[in-house]
Amino acid sequence: MIYVDADACPVKAEAEAIAARHEIALRHVCNGGLRPSSNPLVEIVYVADGPDEADKWIADRAGAGDVVVTGDIPLAAKCVEAGAHVVKHNGEALTPGNIGQALATRDLMTDLRAADPFRQGGGKAFSKSDRARFRDGLERAIRAATA
């Protein structure tokens, strides 16, 4: 099973295409706003409105043999702990070996943003090369999860 933390996920279509090619069920989990897919392997799961509801739903279900697509580091940590393979939107795998560092970096960046509320700027635009790296990362995660 592939679980996609679908709220604000830029690679939903890529995940669906790869899941279809591998004939693996995929669940887009979100608070709403997604249209149903015509692919019988794809299910849209709508959770209650509220912070982290999609994350909680995924964390309660993901485990060994599953792949989770998320940019949410605390959710990734729970899924890694449960034995799932986790891929960020940029294709980076989050594993038992690097999830601690990812959590620490997230916490540091949260503290830095809180210390400077006037800090401006955002992330760079999501590019074609980012999508290609995601596709490669998801392929690797699927191979590892089904091995």
Descriptive overview:
With 147 residues, the chain is of the alpha/beta class. The protein has one domain (2-119): 3-Layer(aba) Sandwich (Rossmann fold). The protein is 44% helix and 15% strand. It contains five helices and six strands; from the N terminus they run E-H-E-E-H-E-H-E-E-H-H. Strands 3-2-1-4-5-6 form a six-stranded mixed β-sheet, with helices on both faces. Helix 2 (53-61) packs parallel to helix 3 (73-81) and helix 3 (73-81) packs antiparallel against helix 4 (99-115). It is globular and about 45 Å long. The model has no long low-confidence stretch (mean pLDDT 90).
Notable characteristics:
single chain, 147 residues, alpha/beta, Rossmann fold, six-stranded mixed beta sheet, globular
